[in-house]
Amino acid sequence: MNALAKLKTLTPSVNQIVRTYALKSDLKIKWVRPEKIPCYKPEKSGDLQSLPTFAGTELMKDYRDSKELETANEHVRNLFTIQHNRRREMVENFKEDMVRRVYRHELDYGSIEAQLGLMTARIRSLQDYMEKFPRQSVVKVQLKELIDKRKRFLRYLRRWDYRRFEYMLEKLDLVYKPYPTHFHWITRKDSLRKLTNIHCDQIKETRLEEYRRQLESQQLDFLENKLKTLEFIRKEQTECQVPVTVSNDEIKAVRKQYEELKQKRAAAAESLKEPEDS
């Protein structure tokens, strides 16, 4: 009984002031933590295309110019095609295709363009491999290093030869995604602060829009009253023989503005009636 009495004394009374504002349940702002995308994914690396699927009937790189295979049996010829050999042969074909897009001459494998083509082919082949075997940590590290190396090459080109940089991005189907200048962790507090600012800006814009519509609805009556007031002031000043402060040009300008706005409102009302009648 003594323990129950102590608990009753600890509970807040009915008349006690309780903090009931700014509760999480009352907030209309909901924050969902963004999904973390690994840096080796195409969304982060900037590759717009994946590893292409070859037909498989193409000959390997070292046997394309072989005269013996031209007259050889079909079964013998199939032994030297890509589909009956290792995956590396298909990757070699893809590397050669990527280099041919950007090389300077037929024997060019050392220029920065050729190196970027080779790196892009290697990156896309490793990305395709990681999709099938995502737990290969060694391949993951190699892929990260290759992506970083290609970014350094692209940053050098962007700095010293921007036209060639744009040419490489177009030919290799890439998007340059540099590292952020300022790194910051994604936290719930900062994200909620940004969402709150966006929410407040939206409320401000909606209220300003409502106030603008309210003023526009009163604009016609305001111009009519202004026109009558100016005419009355000018009439009274001329009758009392005092200096006239309202000129005819001001009255004409207000009357013109009033007539134009009246015609515009009438045209808008007619345009709204036409779809209703149809």
Automatic annotation (TrEMBL):
Keywords (A to Z) from UniProt: Mitochondrion, Ribonucleoprotein, Ribosomal protein, Transit peptide
SMART domains given in the database record: Ribosomal_S15
Localization terms from the record: Mitochondrion
Record GO terms (molecular function): RNA binding; structural constituent of ribosome
One GO biological process term: mitochondrial translation
Gene Ontology cellular component list: mitochondrial small ribosomal subunit
Pfam short name (any one): Ribosomal_S15
InterPro entries, alphabetized: Ribosomal_uS15, Ribosomal_uS15_bac-type, uS15_NS1_RNA-bd_sf, uS15_ribosomal
UniProt name for this protein: Small ribosomal subunit protein uS15m
